[in-house]
Design a protein that fits this description.
57 residues; mainly alpha; globular
């Protein structure tokens, strides 16, 4: 597993990620954090898994 601090630093260095995380987790003072990254990946997986099943048919 990558170093969590390194992951967050990398994501914070990308301006569009900060904007997207603020849009998704706007109620938080610092939305780009490791827990929110996990939530974002989980949401992506929930959406992409059914799509993958359709593509492989």
């Amino acid at each position: 597993m990558p170093n969590p601090d390194l992951v967050i630093a990398r994501l914070r260095s990308i301006p569009s990620y900060g904007e997207e995380f603020r849009a998704a987790f706007g109620g938080e003072s610092n939305p780009v954090n490791y827990d929110n990254v996990a939530k974002a990946i989980a949401a992506f997986e929930r959406i992409s898994s059914p799509l993958r099943a359709l593509i492989t048919i």
